Here is the input.
Amino acid sequence: MIGENQGPDAGASKYHQHKQVMISAGTMHFPDAERWHEASIRYRFETGSDFTGDWFAAHEMIGLARSLEDSEGEVLVVASLTPKKDCGVTVIGPRFKDPLHLGQRFIDTCWEVEEFMMTEQGVEQFNTALYLPPLSRTDAYWKDFRPMSVFTRRTKSDMGIMEGAGTAVLSVDPKSFAGDLFSHLQKAA
Here is the structure.
């Protein structure tokens, strides 16, 4: 996992961006990526369908997702209906041909999301995480996994009793936020 922290409330020791590269030992991934991956496998087994595609379609139906075409495959951008924090955005890249290659459209879209958050939403503190398959797992077990970048806004008071109990407390309506995000991405394309 490759992570970025912007601002002291996001885990940065000083008010500056810094990145972290975390490599897991063995075959397990970090919890969020592993949960997504396991849900995808279980979903495909139970329904015969693609979890990521159906999750995206559900968000797209209510105006919270857009697909951006790319020569390497589509890049999916989702303003989550159920984010962990306000302004939760997930960017999902095309399926890997090479697990260590990220398409340029995916990279550019990840940056455009960060730029939108900082310049148009006034977000000063945030975390991003880039999930890739574990380096030790190049077999069929990870064949359906797509690169994912997750953006989360952070504030001084973003950890409260409700979140401690596992319930997110949100102050931004995902639908109004999504409209602004997709308008920005359209202008950037």
About this structure: The chain has a mean pLDDT of 77.
